[in-house]
Design a protein that fits this description.
- It is built from six helices and 26 strands.
- By secondary structure, it is of the alpha+beta class.
- The strands form six sheets. An eight-stranded mixed beta sheet has the order 1-23-19-22-18-17-16-15, with no helix packed on it. Strands 14-13-12-24-25-26 form a six-stranded mixed beta sheet, with helices on one face.
- β24 and β25 form a beta hairpin.
- Bound molecules: 2-acetamido-2-deoxy-beta-D-glucopyranose (5 copies) and fe (ii) ion (FE2).
- One 2-acetamido-2-deoxy-beta-D-glucopyranose (NAG) binds near residues 169 and 176.
- It catalyses: a phosphate monoester + H2O = an alcohol + phosphate.
Length: about 475
Amino acid sequence: MGRGSDLCLILVMILNSLMMFCNGGITSEFVRKLDKTIDMPLNSDVFRVPPGYNAPQQVHLTQGDVEGKAVIVSWVTQESKGSNTVLYWKENSTKKLKAHGKSNTYKFYNYTSGHIHHCTIRNLEYHTKYYYVVGLGQTERKFWFYTPPQIGPDVAYTFGLIGDLGQSFDSNITLTHYERNPIKGQTVLFLGDLSYADTYPNHDNTRWDTWGRFVERSTAYQPWIWTTGNHELDFAPKIGETKPFKPFTHRYRTPYRASGSTEPFWYSIKRGPAHIIVLASYSAYGKYTPQYTWLEEEFPKVNRTETPWLIVLMHSPWYNSYDYHYMEGETMRVMYEPWFVKNKVDVVFAGHVHAYERSERVSNIAYNVVNGVCSPVKDQSAPVYITVGDGGNLEGLATKMTEPQPEYSAFREASFGHAIFSIRNRTHAYYGWHRNQDGYSVKGDTMWFYNRIWHPTVDSTSSGS
Ligand SMILES: *[C@@H]1O[C@H](CO)[C@@H](O)[C@H](O)[C@H]1NC(C)=O
Ligand SMILES: *[C@@H]1O[C@H](CO)[C@@H](O)[C@H](O)[C@H]1NC(C)=O
Ligand SMILES: *[C@@H]1O[C@H](CO)[C@@H](O)[C@H](O)[C@H]1NC(C)=O
Ligand SMILES: *[C@@H]1O[C@H](CO)[C@@H](O)[C@H](O)[C@H]1NC(C)=O
Ligand SMILES: *[C@@H]1O[C@H](CO)[C@@H](O)[C@H](O)[C@H]1NC(C)=O
Ligand SMILES: [Fe+2]
């Protein structure tokens, strides 16, 4: 023994440290107080019903067309149907306009919803502040929103990213941090799992109502772009509820028809400099399915001269190094990843895993069952995959990670928070992730994104590898 084994030991140590270096990614050292995540009680301030007879509540906006010149206004009236009309006008304009919508109700087990109104306002001017009023003839409530700038390659636009929000005390902190972030988000790209009403007995749908009231302070003033998660399924055969997505589809609208989709769960929009594709992790996506056929026809429609930034949203992530939901996104990845690389998607945002993670630009498309080439490789045509499933819902944080950190994982941390994707021009976008424990302007993770078409150079934060 002696000398030889010492040398061996040293070699092993060198190899080990090299491997650590090769891993490259960062598992954050941030130490968080691990409090239990609990839902805000029904008598919380954020759930208060607005005063007045039949006052509109749960007011929310989403984009109403492909180009950003239409907005869908939705709200609920509890006592009676009331008016379906939205009164709206341009800032400082005396010319008031009206748009007429429709309302519906639904039943879920022994729950009956209020009157859910949806009204699309069309032919809006770009880059303009509009005021609007709902509840005409009874209790009127007034809000405002901004339309996006005209679609084009060099307009700036800032998106917020929130996923798996729920309605716990931590959810409220996440929303507050988003609102008070000095980099102001203009539209939220929501990554699925809204209310978590399905975690209550009989999917207690009053928790859909409380959620709608909780987020109104943001959703009434800026559009939230909806992705569906597993908690939107509300599939409960034991109590006779077998129509998937029933509460979600009654309460939330998406402009799916405008982009040629046949279901509300997958669709696309353009907003300023971005083309955004929303995919459905819980609708069929295999070959020949409606979603597959739609996506195949959608990619050729993306015009990077017009919208340089190609963003994809989905609920279940493809690259995830936590123990939770590990490989759940794999079957969709196998189907669609070659298209993402071929079409040079800039970034993919997902939720589902209740933590934060950002990947390197990697792809794993060489594998064909017989060749054994099954490890993700660095690929400058591939998107960065970001998981922001850390909105703060009652299920708590995902803390267990696969070790060692895989090479594809650039940064990961199990903390609640939100992210910001701030497009500056056709080449640059500033990205930041904000953890709830920090001050509003503090960033827990940042990256300058270089556009894959206009500036396709390495933008990895741990580059050199
Ligand atoms: C509306 O009026 C306010 C106050 O006079 C002014 O500051 C603002 O610039 C005006 N906005 C537009 C779009 O004209
Ligand atoms: C629905 O049924 C549950 C028990 O099955 C009961 O606790 C609840 O009060 C009922 N709700 C309504 C609105 O009837
Ligand atoms: C939620 O956050 C807001 C601040 O944004 C605060 O005013 C409110 O009291 C909070 N509510 C609860 C129940 O934590
Ligand atoms: C893409 O958009 C640009 C700018 O709007 C336009 O000039 C061009 O014709 C479009 N290309 C296609 C293939 O439609
Ligand atoms: C695009 O934005 C980046 C970051 O703000 C800036 O450095 C760059 O000069 C801008 N490019 C152009 C052409 O303005
Ligand atoms: Fe989920």
